[in-house]
């Protein structure tokens, strides 16, 4: 099972079924997108 984690607040967004155990980083809807640094 894999996990999607918000790269801003570190909250777990979603779990997904996968052959390998992995962690992906995304941005949850409650965090503003950080396209501009």
UniProtKB/TrEMBL annotation:
Q: Pfam families under this entry? A: SR1P
User: Superkingdom of this entry's organism?
Assistant: Bacteria
Q: Whose protein is this, by species?
A: Pontibacillus salicampi
Protein name as catalogued: GapA-binding peptide SR1P
- What does the record give as the organism's lineage? Bacteria, Bacillati, Bacillota, Bacilli, Bacillales
């Amino acid at each position: 099972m894999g996990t999607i984690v918000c790269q801003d607040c570190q909250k777990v967004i979603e779990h997904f079924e996968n052959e390998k155990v992995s962690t992906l980083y995304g941005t949850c809807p409650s965090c503003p997108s950080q396209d501009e640094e």
